[in-house]
Amino acid sequence: MKQLLSFLIVILFLAGCDNGGPDVEPTPDPEINIRDGRVFEFAGNSVMQVEVFATGTIETPINFTYETDGGTAEPGVDFVSASGSGTIDDANRTVVIFIDIIDDDINEVEENFIITLTSAENATIKDGDAVGVIQDNEAPNRFDSEGYWTPGT
User: Fold this and answer.
1) Distance (Å, rounded) from C-alpha 37 to C-alpha 50?
2) Regarding beta strands 129-135 and 37-40, do their DSSP bridges make them parallel or antiparallel, or are they unpaired?
3) pTM of the full predicted structure?
4) How far is CA 106 from the centre of its chain?
5) Which of 75, 97, 131, 152 could form a disulfide with 141 if both were Cys (CB 3.0 to 4.6 A apart)?
6) Nearest CA to 63 among 72, 54, 75, 50?
């Protein structure tokens, strides 16, 4: 009886396996994405931080390039044009891009520009465009240069 029970257990185990082993889910290929950014235009040093991050299994480091382009915000007037590269690996799955913002004394509406992932090695670009939004500091009901709320009149 013991032998028959052992035999049935082995048969049941093998019946639930494919090629003698358990089913293994395939690992997803890595993809990279870029998040939108937002920053207040403060006198002095305003820097927008935009994250590039990876999903999926990273077996080989991912190298990427990026560049900025104007929208309603003008390069050289509202922000400093930027281009560059970064590397993402399994230990560091997020890279931050820093974009300098130029302050002016003009009361204006929000402005925006585009940050684009232009290439990637060892990954697919899933979401490669981000919008950078610059909120004006001269407009009413905004933060002042020290980060305090200033109600408009």
Assistant:
1) 5
2) parallel
3) 0.73
4) 31
5) 152
6) 54
